[in-house]
Amino acid sequence: LVVAVEDALVPGSQACLAWRGPRPGEEGYAAFTVLASRLMVKSSLGPGAPSGRPRGVLLPLDDPGPAYLAGPLLEGEEPEAAIARLRGAAAAILDLPEADGRIATLVLAPLLATMKVPPAQAAQNPYGAAFGIGRRDQMGIDGPALAKEMAALTTEDLKRARVRWFSNPAAVVIDTEPGSLSSPPSGR
User: Are 34 and 74 in contact (CB under 8 A)?
Assistant: First the structure.
């Protein structure tokens, strides 16, 4: 799907894959969260990373359920090629053999309370701390229990979650210069 947008907030055409996962409390939530966190952390821009590198997004309190991998189209890249590049980047990250829930536990600690957050850190963002407490309560998230569940995941658990939740992403390309792209992606 190619969507044409004028006056876009982000310059340049963007491609995005999205996966819908389980909601908090549903079967597979811990495994999905570990894989989505891995996607977010391992795709993040670091020093020296190319500017066209895709970025993983997981918003477990704002929009629980989906995970995204998005990035700009490279110079001269067509939509099908951009989607294929994102699929390849996602597979390279999601198919890693490690079964390590520590990434999710650490990265999501301030949001999901998967470990104790130092008071000084919470004081730097009191709105975020209060928002996290309220949303966890609304969604029934028990941070310490979730951390234990993530730590107990095996490589096989993550492989099953990979197949169940990350096999068939929705794909879209946002064309910020309507008409500049010649081949729209076909299907999902």
Answer: no
